[in-house]
Amino acid sequence: MTISRREFLAATGAVLAAANCAPSLALPARKRYDVLISGGTVFDGTGQTPVTTDVALLDGRIAAVGPALGDDARVVIDARGLAVAPGFVDIHSHADSSLFEDPRAESVIRQGITTVVVGKDGGSRGPSAAAAGGAAQPSRTSGRFATLGDFLQAVDRLPSAINVASMVGLGTIRGLVVGNADRPATAGELQQMQSLVSAALSQGACGASSGLEYPPGAFASREELIELCRPLASRGLPYATHMRNEDDHLLEAVDEAIAIAKGAGCPLQISHLKTDGPRNWKKIDEVLGRIETARAGGLDVTFDRYPYAAYATGLTLIFPVRTLDGGTSAFLSRIADVGQRDTLREGVLKKVMETIGGWDNIMIAGVAHDGDRAAEGKRLGSYASSLGADPYDTAVALLTRSKGEVGMVGFSMSEENVSRFLAHPLGMVCTDGGAFATEGPARRGHPHPRGLGSFPRILGHYVREKKALTLPQAIHKMTGFPAARVKLADRGRLVSGLAGDVVVFDPATVRDRATFTEPFQYPEGIRAVIVNGQIALRDGVRTEVRSGQAVRAS
């Protein structure tokens, strides 16, 4: 059978027409953008004056920032009357403590935080025994990984709701190589520790941290710390330190931190800078003066601070650090030793009464022993009184039953000094807190509210109400400043081509709701949170998306 050219064209035309009429066969036109944030007041993260404009996201990155980008997007967020900023960067976080049990990181996302920097206060998730030549094989169930690189890869595999960067903990490394003994490292141990620091940096660590009030980091000398920080110098990455003292010997501790960074030739980041204890509040001028003088002399030094006049730590910190020589078992033996009881009691009472201000300035934040859950959220003095017991004996009993794992909140700082630290041009914002949730595995203990409210508290209380700093300044301290500090090159600014991390909030209503009495309350006023171009929160509702990733220093 033959067919004429005219019949062929007519037949094929009919087929094409039928195909064009069939919706199932039509190819949808690709939208120009994935997300368009329209008409908001855009803060670019540099501290400059904001502008009213649009922000468009495509394929996980910022595609454009400019006026009248249109509405050709899969999702359009009307941001008129709202602030649009880079996703917040928490430069001092402990959100990794529950990340593998609950990768939603609810209290982090709900604050507008899209990137956390963990591995702080001298402790990181890697390296561990396998990397140090030991036989133990760590895993995520134990919270430890053979190398820091393994930890970062595990974050990618979760996946996490938030981006995670990590420093390497110098206390972790000392514990691996030297152990918990209060003694100097040998030359061979020092070389091994320095090699472990270098390896972690090559795997993407964004700095090195110390916790010099906690063992085993407390047993490291200034000279040891200088040697361990030398690998930071060529990379321009910071040494972040929880200093050796934050109360009566604060000034000496600042001097030591400066000397370590100078000796190693690296930048210095002083963690959660504070003047602890009423008799030390007046030292703030000298503290800031020392930092400013070091900066003027060429040292790249900055600090971070959370917006509360109370700190959180372990209850063991009320005891002299020498009692922790040899680890937890040795500590528990000492506090149980009748022969040492009077001496230890005298030292603890002196610290509690003279520096902290009394037993009721200590709140029990968490215990490991289930039988002591009633103590959580209670002031130690009042709790002991309700038991008809002595506060010191109650503290010892709690520590003994929980094998040393008792958290505390100490109320001994000045609100005026908090404002000054937050407003200082060398200061950044942090939480120094974990990730929590109002339900599930991340609802645990009775935590300091900083883990649920720090960043909205800055925006509501310190910017809007107290006017301690301006909104552009605050956002810079939460975004571009910390991101640049740890060399996360594609975070912290709203610039075309960078990662699509964005927060949209209402400057008129944003506020924290978590309190010391009722910590499990999420903030208000955070309208949308976008992580790597995908919406994690919108109008108070969490999505199922977990688009965070491990981020490594550039």
What does this protein structure show overall?
It is a single chain. The chain is an alpha/beta fold and 554 residues long. The chain is 33% helix and 18% strand. The chain contains 16 helices and 21 strands. It has helices at 5-21, 106-109, 148-157, 170-177, 187-202, 222-233, 250-264, 284-296, 328-336, 338-356, 380-387, 391-401, 415-423, 450-465, 471-478, 480-485; strands at residues 33-42, 51-58, 61-66, 73-78, 83-86, 88-90, 113-118, 163-166, 168-169, 208-211, 239-242, 268-270, 301-305, 311-314, 362-367, 406-410, 427-429, 502-505, 526-531, 534-538, 541-542. Strands 1, 2, 3, 4, 5, 18, 19, 20 and 21 form a nine-stranded mixed beta sheet that branches. Strands 9-10-11-12-13-17 form a six-stranded parallel beta sheet. The chain has a three-stranded parallel beta sheet with strand order 6-7-8. Mean pLDDT is 93; it is low at 1-25 and 134-141.
SSE layout:
Elements: H1 5-21, E1 33-42, E2 51-58, E3 61-66, E4 73-78, E5 83-86, E6 88-90, H2 106-109, E7 113-118, H3 148-157, E8 163-166, E9 168-169, H4 170-177, H5 187-202, E10 208-211, H6 222-233, E11 239-242, H7 250-264, E12 268-270, H8 284-296, E13 301-305, E14 311-314, H9 328-336, H10 338-356, E15 362-367, H11 380-387, H12 391-401, E16 406-410, H13 415-423, E17 427-429, H14 450-465, H15 471-478, H16 480-485, E18 502-505, E19 526-531, E20 534-538, E21 541-542
Parallel strand pairs: 1-4, 1-5, 6-7, 7-8, 9-10, 10-11, 11-12, 12-13, 13-17
Antiparallel strand pairs: 1-2, 2-3, 5-18, 14-16, 15-16, 18-19, 19-20, 20-21
